[in-house]
Amino acid sequence: MKEKTREQYEARAKIAKAMAHPSRLLMLDLLQKQEMCVNDISEKVGADQSTVSKHLSILKDVGLVGSRKEGTLSYYRVTCGCLDGFFSCMETVLLSDLEGRRLSVK
What we know:
Layout: H1 6-19, H2 22-33, E1 36-37, H3 38-45, H4 49-61, E2 65-70, E3 73-78, H5 83-105
Antiparallel strand pairs: 1-3, 2-3
Helix pairs in contact: 3-4
């Protein structure tokens, strides 16, 4: 197997950093299900449009979301199909950690 370069790890870290915010994770979860405009995302996330737009810009910068214009509105969507697996992995880690903590208290 080919060894990864420092640049590849830095690129991975940039993606991980972009995802490292609860609102962005929620946005990714929402956008996996359907394409949405900023107004709709703002409503679901509970944040103002400018804040949501900044979060979307960060996610777009690393390639996790894409957008298209329709009139004056921009519609966003997830650009990769692997987030479900990634989120499932995260849930497994959370459950395993919780179980480990529970057992250590006994």
